[in-house]
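Hi F.,

I've been meaning to write this up properly since the lab meeting, where we talked about keeping a consistent format for the predictions we share between groups. The idea is simple: the sequence comes first, exactly as it goes in, then the C-alpha cells exactly as they come out, then a line or two of notes. No screenshots and no reformatting. I'm using this chain as the first example so we have something concrete to point to.
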Amino acid sequence: MKTHVLLPYLFALLLTATPLAYVLLLPSLLFLTDATYMENVYEPQRLRLSVSMLANGYRLRTIGVKADVDEQTLQAILGEENGYVICSPVITQALQGFDSVDYEGVWVGMGKSASPVFGRMIATHADEGIWQKIVDKRKSEILYIRDNESQYRPRGVPPDLVLTKGESESDGQFTQRIRKALLVNPVIHLYVPSMGEWALPLLGQASLLWTVEGSYKHVIPPSHLYGVVVEDLVRTFKQVTETAATNILADKRLLTAREMHGSWL
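Output, unedited:
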C-alpha cells in the first residue's frame, strides 16, 4: 500500500489508541458489589458513574461478588492492582470476619462494619433532605406516610396528607386509616420512606403509585412503582476520591421507574 494511502489509517489508529492507553494508565477504583445492589442501584447509574470517575482521574472496575466470598476468591478478584476498593453494603457485611486482605489500597465499606479491613466507611442511612426535595416537586395528589413519630416530617405538605403510625396502633388499624384518607383525598401517589406490614394490603390497589426506599423495590408490583430512593453513587464516590474523611455520608437520589426501565409508563 502506498504511503499516502496508509498514513490516514495510521493517524486514525493513533487517535483511537491514545485515549485507550490513557485510561489503562489511570489508577483503578474497584467496586465490589452483590447482584441485587448491582441491579437496583449501580446499573441505572453505571454510565454516569464511569464518566465521572474518568473525569476525576480513576478507572472504574465493577465486579459482582457473592455474599459468601472467601479470602482466596477475593484475592484472585483483586489481582495486583492498587487503588480504592469500595464494597456494597452486603459485601461490606460479608467481609466482617476478615482480619486483613493482602492488597495495598484504600478499603471503603458501605453501611456498617467493625472489620479492620475498612479504613473508611460510607454511611447509607436515610437522608431527610432527599425526601423533602422529592416532595417539593409534587405536593398535590400525594400521601406521605411515616412509620413512626421519629421519622422526618416534610415541610409544605398539608397535615391531612401526612399520616403517622401511632405507637399503640396496630398494622391493620393503620392500613384502615390510610384507606380512609385515600377515599377522602384524590391521592394517587404514596411516598413511603419506611415500609411495614401495614402496606401489604394496599399493594394491589391499582390506582396507586409508590415511591419507596430502594430496599423495598421488589415488594412493590412493577406497574405500581414510580421510583426508589437510593445512594447517588456519582456524588458519593466523588466524596471518596476528593476528601480524606474517614466517615462519609452517602448522597441520595431518586431513580424513577423510567430510569430503571420499569413498566409504569
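Notes:
The radius of gyration is 23 Å.
The CA atoms of residues 148 and 165 lie 5 Å apart.

If this format works for you, I'll send the rest the same way.

G.
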